[in-house]
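User: Here's a chain of 134 residues. Predict its fold as tokens.
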Amino acid sequence: MIRVIDIIWVEDKIEYLPSVEDEINELEKEFKVKLSITEKNDSNEFSNIASNIPSELLFCVDYNLKNEGHGIDGDQVIQNIRSVNPNCKIVFYSAKLNQTELRELLANEDNFTYCVYRPNLMSKLRELLEEGII
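Assistant: Prediction complete.
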């Protein structure tokens, strides 16, 4: 039986997800899962996020989401998510900031956000699947 993992993917560059489609397909085959991805390109949708986020939902959130000064960055998106659901899992990534720099933007007690440098994002998803975290 294939397990479905629901992912809300917050990424302002619409070309990114198609660029990793092959790697996502490989993860699905290897781990016998279906990654059901809902792409969100407008960080403003998360300014007033709803409070009914299921704990099993996974978020993948890019740091740099401000579209030429519009919207909010990924750390604020995460803060909004955490204000209503402190336990859902989040993968926070950036092409400009490394894992340590991303972690510094978050609350110290946030144990359910996994930070990663963007080139290592697919490896991080693989690791989380291997460890049974997602």
